Amino acid sequence: MSDLFSRRLALLGEPANLPLLTQCLHGIERETLRVDARGQLAQSEHPRALGSALTHPQITTDYSEALLEFITPAEPRVEDTLSDLERIHRFACSQLQDEYLWSPSMPGLLPDEADIPIARYGSSNIGRLKYVYRQGLALRYGKTMQCIAGIHYNFSLAEGLWPLLQQLDGDTQSGRDFQSASYIALIRNFRRYSWLLMYLFGASPALDASFLRGRPHQLQQLDADTLYLPWATSLRMSDLGYQSSAQSGLTPCYNDLASYTDSLRAAVATPYPAYAEMGVKNAAGEWQQLNTNIIQIENEYYSSIRPKRVTYSGERPIQALMSRGVQYVEVRCLDINPYLPLGIDLDQARFLDAFILFCALQDSPKLASGECCSCTENFLTTVKEGRRPGLQLQRNGQAVELRQWAGELLAAFTPIAQLLDRAHGGQAYQQALTLQQAKVDDPQLTPSARILAELQSTGESFRNFALRQSQTHTSQLRDAPLDAEQQRLFSDMASQSLAEQAALEQQDQGDFDSFVAAYQASITHIAN
User: How far apart are CA 273 and CA 101, in angstroms?
Assistant: First the structure.
């Protein structure tokens, strides 16, 4: 442990400051495919009873019309965040009738690419823009890749903590700039250590053989319908999942906020030859992508973590970051655990809190190019081979065994877990740490190992295992209906969102081409 880390821990441990640890905010976004009774992708429209995917604050769609996304409010108690998430699940399941929520991250048997429905958001200009953006994703990467689901974990430190840390560090920049720089430092450390999350929580060691659409691969055959790698933790986060040759040269620098936003602004403004050849409109003059640049909008950049700020209406994410600084981080590399009805549980969430706080409090020197590469290699090695006995990673230019490094990190998290337990009462955070240590001691306890062991012992295909889990979890959620008041609140939220979408569509909007042009131009006119 560094001297700075020890001093920051001591500062947090002072009785007057300890309550700040109860003021961190948590939010979860969980994606899940709607499937029919056979486990096949639902071809139905987004259920009207769930409200408008465009304007509903908690229930929307991601890429496909069948890919639901549940969004919790930000809460100081992670228990409340999970309760929020559970209520959204229970309401959705009550409205799904003959459909189920798909439990794993990787899809089952998908229809032909042409038959995967892209999400629609109505006839307003902003609704059409969201649809065209998704058409662009289909054009660039194919629809299959966009049917992968994950969990995003949003986390912010207490606002009252930043002035204390700034004073301790003797930092003289503005409070806003110190906070942003600290979050960017957190992200650098996340890049250093996120391989550990893949080992502990990776839950996609196998996938349906149809996912690859005949593409060449290095996977092994588990059965006629299932491919896998024997030591894999998260094929979702490997090069089989989200990938983009256009983005391969795009490595946003996390040395400061300005370099990060500059790299994304450049990517949104730099043409990519293959996309330029396709054009923004097809032969019939219909929009098929928002632009022909490396990325259409900021969110197209695939990353395991992002600096974020809540945006105002009509504001772009980069505009919000540049004008008001970083407010929280969004962890994006988490698989959905198919053994859990919500895909995540309290023990994992508490561990994530300790992990992210460690990344925030530990020294975080700038990432030199060599270390940047080793961070990426450690991550990719772990997602493909994380449970291989004796597996070695790179640390400071030296080889180190994954299990040894994991044990050292968990030991470093212990004082943070102890502080969190002091702040909240009880020993839940230390217990969450103990559960993860058990996975380091015995890789068979990891979700990825459990899934493979079950598939191998039962002879069940991935798609049948996933359907069984999906039916079980959806039934459990349906069997615990919301009380009348909660049900009414969700129904009212759905109705209000539909009314808001209708109001948008009735407004005088002007033509769509001008709307897109103004949206594209907005990123080049940002004042610091």
Answer: 39
Cβ contacts of 267 within 8 Å, gap of 6 or more: 247, 250, 293, 294, 295, 301
Classified as helix, coil or strand, 111 is: coil
Over range 362-367, report the average pLDDT.
Answer: 93
| Maximum pairwise Cα distance, the chain | 68
Q: Give the angle subtended at the CA of 62 by the CAs of 60 and 66, to the nearest 5°.
A: 85
Q: pLDDT tens-digit profile of 346-360?
A: 999 999 999 999 999
Mean pLDDT confidence for 168-185: 96
Nearest one of 325, 59, 25 to 154, comparing CA atoms:
25
d(CA 26, CA 85): 11
> Residue ranges of the alpha helices (H) in 340-461?
346-361, 369-385, 402-424, 428-441, 447-458
Flag whether pLDDT at 7 surpasses 60.
yes
Q: Give per-residue pLDDT as tens, 231-246.
A: 999 999 998 765 566 7
CA dihedral 70, 74, 80, 81 (to 10 degrees): 40
pLDDT above 70: residue 310: yes
Domains in the chain with CATH codes: 3-522 (3.30.590.20)
